[in-house]
Automatic annotation (TrEMBL):
It comes from Halorubrum trueperi. It comes from the Archaea. Gene3D superfamilies: P-loop containing nucleotide triphosphate hydrolases. It is a peripheral membrane protein. Residues 8-255 form the ABC transporter domain. This is ABC transporter ATP-binding protein.
Length: 344
């Protein structure tokens, strides 16, 4: 098999705060292949943006990678200097659209001028080449090419978001990380942007990591996915496999919590409880206190990410081989049946 484009391997990330350390990400591992549309999903606070920021060396000042590796085309990048990252990796190889990036374009400069400036700093392109590149990208994201001669404030929110996506692709990166690219938009605009992301992936020969809290968006658009809970990867693998037979209680319940076009009338269940505070060493399953099927063993040690059968699917649930059976019973029955505790 060829080498993955990006590998996250046993990653731990902590934040220093006045109340002690936050173990925001624990032992996270996943890989993204060339030309792959990858989804990273989890509830608010699960560590999605933290992982994304760590990939481009953009963690907040109080955050740091304390274990593990981030490799891009096999080369460790988490230990690169700021200069190496900005000269070799950022924008040219890995483009990152931060969460809530709606206002990240310069409001007082015409978009064509912003493109020319960007090209001047990072490339030896002519002015015309920069303009042609932006025009081409506008068309890829569904904006009329002639609108590059306007100011960002002349665009609606959805159009600005598309322009930001166009700019992020400007220097022909191999990987685009888009953190909640559609959350602030209405449903129609969300849908249009997602459709464009898919065609971008094909036309621009780029891998995309899309971050979202909505698992149904990932089921509809991505090839592979990782589900995060409390800074741990709960489940990882091929989207079809995970849709058809989730192998972690969190991804199973998350799937139940979003509407499914195949079952539009289904009651949407809510996952009760909150993830743990992550102030101490995370040497337990972070979903155990919310899991209807947890046992004492789930909090005795950190669950390893293990392969489910021979397919492209990995789970960190130690009871994964019972999931299908457990999922078909009511949680109350199952809990008493297996004699598990709630850890509350
Ligand atoms: N600068 C920081 N200092 C301290 N804690 C932080 C900092 N940034 C994030 N955290 C904490 O790290 C954990 C992960 O946060 P992160 O922003 O990565 O979550 P997220 O999955 O992106 O959530 P959301 O869906 O709300 O964007 C949370 O517990 C959060 O409170
Ligand atoms: Mg976030």
């Amino acid at each position: 098999m060829s080498e993955p484009l990006l590998e996250i391997d046993g990653l731990d990330i902590r934040y220093e705060t006045k109340d002690g350390e936050i173990h925001a990400v624990t032992d996270a591992s996943f890989a993204i292949d060339t030309n792959e549309f990858f989804g990273l999903v989890g509830e608010s606070g699960s560590g999605k943006s933290t992982i994304a920021k760590s990939i481009i060396g953009g963690l907040d000042d109080n955050g740091s990678v304390t274990a593990g590796e981030i490799r891009f085309r096999g080369e460790p990048i988490h230990s690169m200097t700021e200069r190496e990252l900005s000269e070799r990796i950022r924008w040219k190889e890995i483009a990152y659209i931060p969460q809530a990036s709606m206002n990240s374009l310069d409001p007082i400069m015409r978009l064509d001028k912003q493109a020319v400036e960007l090209a001047k700093v990072h490339t030896d392109w002519s002015k015309q080449r920069a303009i042609d590149r932006l025009t081409e990208l506008f068309e890829v994201v569904g904006l009329p090419g002639e609108r590059i001669y306007e100011y960002p404030h002349q665009f609606s929110g959805g159009m600005q978001q598309r322009a930001i996506i166009a700019f992020s692709l400007f220097l022909e990166p191999s990987l685009l990380i888009a953190d909640e690219p559609t959350t602030a938009l209405d449903v129609i605009m969300q849908d249009q942007i997602l459709t464009h992301l898919k065609s971008i992936q094909e036309e621009e020969d780029v891998s995309i990591v899309m971050i979202t809290h909505d698992i149904s968006v990932i089921f509809e658009n991505c090839d592979s996915m990782a589900v995060l809970h409390g800074g741990q990867v709960s489940e990882l693998g091929d989207v079809t496999r995970m849709f058809d037979s989730p192998s972690h209680p969190y991804s199973y319940l998350l799937q139940q919590a979003f509407p499914d076009i195949r079952h539009p009338k289904r009651d949407l269940s809510v996952i009760e409880g909150q993830p743990p505070q992550l102030q101490d060493e995370v040497d337990y399953c972070t979903f155990a206190n919310r899991c209807p099927w947890s046992t004492d063993e789930c909090v005795e040690s950190r669950p390893p990410l293990q392969a489910v059968g021979d397919d492209n699917q990995y789970t960190s649930c130690i009871r994964y081989d019972e999931i299908e059976e457990l999922g078909h019973r009511s949680p109350e029955n199952t809990r008493s049946e297996v004699g598990g505790s709630n850890h509350e």
